[in-house]
Amino acid sequence: MAPNSKDYDPIPPxxxxxxxxxxxxxxxxxxxxTPSQNRPHSPVDDPHAPExxxxxxxxxxxxxxxxxxxxxxxxxxxRGRYPRxxxxxxxxxxxxxxxxxxxxxxxxDADEREADQVRxxxxxxxxxxxxxxxxxxxxxxxxxxxxxxxxxxxPQWRWKWRWRLPVPRLRIRLGRDSDSSGDxxxxxxxxxxxxxxxxTDSTQTTRWRFALPKLGSTALFLLVxxxxxxxxxxxxxxxxxxxxxFSDMARRMARQIDPETxxxxxxxxxxxxxxxxxxxxxxxxxxLSGTEGDFALMxxxxxxxxxxxxxxxxxxxYHVYLNYPKADGRAVQVLxxxxxxxxxxxxxxxxxHSETAGHQxxxxxxxxxxxxxxxxxxxxxxxxxxxxxxxxxxxxxxxGAIALVRSRGSQDDPALQVKAAELAGxxxxxxxxxxxxxxxxxxxxxxxxxxxxPADGVERASxxxxxxxxxxxxxxxxxxxxxxxxxxxxxxxxxxxxxxLPLAWRDAEPLLKRLKGFxxxxxxxxxxxxxxxxxxxxxxxxxxxxxxxxEQDEIEKQPIxxxxxxxxxxxxxxxxxxxxxxxxxxxFGAASPxxxxxxxxxxxxxxxxxxxxxxxxxxxxxxxxxxxxAQNLIGSTEYVEQNDESLRKDAFAYINLDKAxxxxxxxxxxxxxxxxxxxxxxxxxxxxxxxxTLRDRWEQRQGRIEGLGTDSDxxxxxxxxxxxxxxxxxxxxxxxxxxxxxxxxxMEQHGDPGFVYHALLAQVLGLLVLELSDRLVLPFxxxxxxxxxxxWTDKLELWADEQGAKKAAIGPEKKPFSLAALxxxxxxxxxxxxEFIKFEVAWENSVMASNGWEPSSTGRQRCEYNSRMAKFExxxxxxxxxxxxxxxxxxxxxxxxxxxxxDAYFPSIRDAILSGNWTQAQLTADKVAGIIKQAAANLVEGxxxx
Length: 946
Description:
Blueprint: H1 17-22, H2 62-65, H3 70-79, H4 109-125, H5 217-242, H6 245-254, H7 259-269, H8 272-282, H9 292-307, E1 312-335, E2 341-344, E3 365-366, E4 371-379, H10 385-393, E5 402-406, H11 414-423, E6 428-432, E7 461-462, E8 500-503, H12 505-513, E9 545-567, E10 572-582, H13 594-612, E11 619-626, H14 634-642, H15 644-650, E12 651-661, E13 665-670, H16 675-682, E14 686-687, E15 692-693, H17 694-700, E16 705-706, H18 714-719, E17 725-731, H19 744-751, H20 756-774, H21 782-802, H22 820-836, H23 838-849, H24 856-874, H25 907-914, H26 918-945
Parallel strand pairs: 3-7, 4-5, 5-6, 6-8, 10-11, 10-12, 12-17, 13-16
Antiparallel strand pairs: 1-2, 1-9, 4-9, 9-11, 13-17, 14-15
């Protein structure tokens, strides 16, 4: 058929190499740097175009571009488009078929067949002409298109990516016989499957897209060798990870700082000026729990934790019961016969200093009962149950009366004073600050002229019964989150049921004088050296009538805010060393609590700096700023109850700071496990005023680790979840506790001029945190614990005999009360501890024998040893709790029901004895013995199983 026939368009012959490089009408329109995937492929010829367009080149060679027909290039440039509507590929092209699409509906079937033919050629051969453009063939990709530089200039709508998996293609070169004509020296003859004239070789028409390569013996050998090498490499990598080599390397790299260098750095980094500045800021305004001032300080501490570079800073919110005083809601008045007041107490302190915001705190009792009552005034010494019993023996009717008692002394818990008055029939209770119990009262010795509480100083306090219910009184035993169940106010055992108020000595003295001639003269045991007169009387039902008004705001779901800062450990990262201090204060809180706050923040700053220098502790360090600590230890208790299971398992130690500095005498209270470590640290810290170490001063006064009471945030950790706890502080002869006189000026002038003892306690704390978190073997003194248990058991036996244990008749056999089972259990502890600590000696010898290298298996045993050592304390829990006070679960530590005696160990046994129920006391003692014996067994069995 004729070539110009309308029914048939012959497929033009594929040009030879010489023809291809000799004619390129668009060579000058393509940048040589354009990648092959983005350069336009050869369009099929337009049968109606000039003849020169039929030889449009498939290959672009910049070198030959100048030799092409200039007229053809000009013609195409003037047309401004590619022949037959061809468009170059863009980055959105995902299918090679799009390269040959045509918008001209008049194209013939021959054009389509021609396009299909060229498409198949390129798909099968994947032509790479990068060499022609002077680009290395190594840049070509088998996995898809590459985006060329010209594509970066495309409009944004062109950037449409379709995610797909790459499809590998096996390129099979189907070359012709060696004698084929038209090949040049480089073997780059005409397109594969054609001869020099463009005729198709019929023997090369069948092409396989996928074909397995033929493997000779050499290729097969290489393949097998490479597979085996890959298996060896993968196995080696698996062994590295399985044996924890990388984690050990990370740990050892983090411990490149010598331990002694760390200790020196911590001590040298403590800056008393920073501590002073922080304390001045924290005491610049009042901040009762749940108030705006409290929230502002919480945010400040949160930002400081973040600025110190701690790994994680977290805010924790609880909703708790709190009360607040009203400005005109409180009054204490003596009423005349006509019922009108003849005298009124001032109640409030003088303005102590110029605060930066708000006003200083009103005088009130936290968690007190609202109401207004009146009755005859009766003086009852310290307000103990024994004092009220003495009044009863004297025949003094106390029903409906107003009790007047002095603070501190033999009963150091105002809540128990108010509760005892309630049980004795009183309708209200007034507690005054006795100067004799705060340092001998002299006008010149009270603040601001001296260190003691002045005549107008009012000691605020919480009267919630923390010996009975600690934390939020409406959620005893569980965290007080917003949607958790809550008790009603009249259901809880943690609140007293009569109103109360605190009084200054300035207001109490006139009341005491008005009692003269009423009732009986006070017994000698009730006298006080602070009183400037001796003619004091108890009062009776005929005493002057006193009105006590205490109207207040009560909020059952008041938000409070804890803030936590965390430094992650690298070996036992789930195990924690916790440092805590409560943030809220009754007034400005210089000594209590912000001497502790400033010290804790200084250590957080130093530890954060060490982390920034590349150091990491072995165990996690957590800094905790509690809220609601002044009012029944709420923040710390709710946190413990919310996280009790994890704390029992992972909390290694809790270090508490509260009234950290109020003098120059170092004291510590807590678990005996800290005994040896504390002495080592005190030996490193020198007292510049006494020119000796703190250890020397400690031993000179025969210091010891005292028992824990119930007056700070260690209670929940030690007594509820069994975390070994330690409370640290410097004290003196007295300070204006819980009054507005406990301010920055008092601290700078009288409490700690120069902030020397703040810095010393910061050194002690920093070294404690370092040793507890970073020693490979946890430095707990288990021998001291065993020895202390033995001592406490002997003291309990002597005390029980004083209470009449030998006269008790228990059971049908009428046997006397016996602590034999408890003493046997304590002996088991001593035996188990001596067996247990042998591991530490064996571990040291093993590491020394291997030149300091610790195998991973030995490391796991050491970590298990640490965990068992810390778990011994939590194994001393009775999960049923003390009868009638089930929040408290430790069988050794814990408060008594009616006493604040710090050295009253084994509280459940003592409570049973004090109740007079010797049968119950015997059952309790035997149960405690069983728990202690099991803890001793767990200590050894745990290590043996590891």
